[in-house]
Write the structure tokens for this entry.
Amino acid sequence: MIQKLLVFILLFFMHHIAIAQSNSILINGEIKNTYLKPIVNTHIINLSTGVGTVSNKKGAFNIPVKKGDWLQISNIQFISKKIKIKKGNLTERVLLIYLMPVRNILDEAILKKKMKGILSLDRKDKEKDTLPRIDQEYYNFSNIDFSNVKVDENKPKSAQYLTDPIARTAGLPSASVNIPDRALEERRAVKREINFKEKFPKKLLKLFGERFFFDNLKIPKENYYHFLQYCNPLGIERLFKYKNHLEILKILLKESKSYLLLLENNK
């Protein structure tokens, strides 16, 4: 009885997966790093259906998806990413994914004691009590010179303020606060660059309009992203950042002719 029940449950899930896959669309994708170079051997898994694949040497892959599915992209050298499939992805059937490299940053360690390299000897000379020793002279303030201390006559200072150097500097910002975290700034810069690259195709399409690309230039809709990659070495992303839209327009008009000729020759 239990064996029949297990077989029934297995058949039910297989039937459910088959129905889900029948409503799916095969989408083509490319995985690249921040320098637009392909990332090979990246695992792409559709978390909604359990179907997975691996990117080839060109960073390309294809996987069946439907609207609302979640894709998990993972590579040991890059930060994992999850992407939700939207209606626009199904219409274009193209998915460009950029991954950020994993950076292992180790904190600097300072050895205040000269080590001999032998554990037994290095541990032998270590003091049992590492807390600072305070003798009775520590609390002797009789020799402190207060001649340079400015006292507001209208607001008398407490004894702690006059004798404790820490109290006089309380509230002042620490010098270490102003030291910039270069690693953090670098990660933020890389993240901003990736966000720009992901949003650039849609922003450019919104700027010039679909009629310009698909009617005037006659670029096939499924090749829109590929056409932008074809033009990218000419610096269209950089020109877009500086709002040099006229130069972008000239490049698109000129390169569309050679791109369409290339498509024709590859048929």
User: Anything to note?
Assistant: Residues 182-267 form one domain. DSSP finds ten helices and seven strands in the chain.
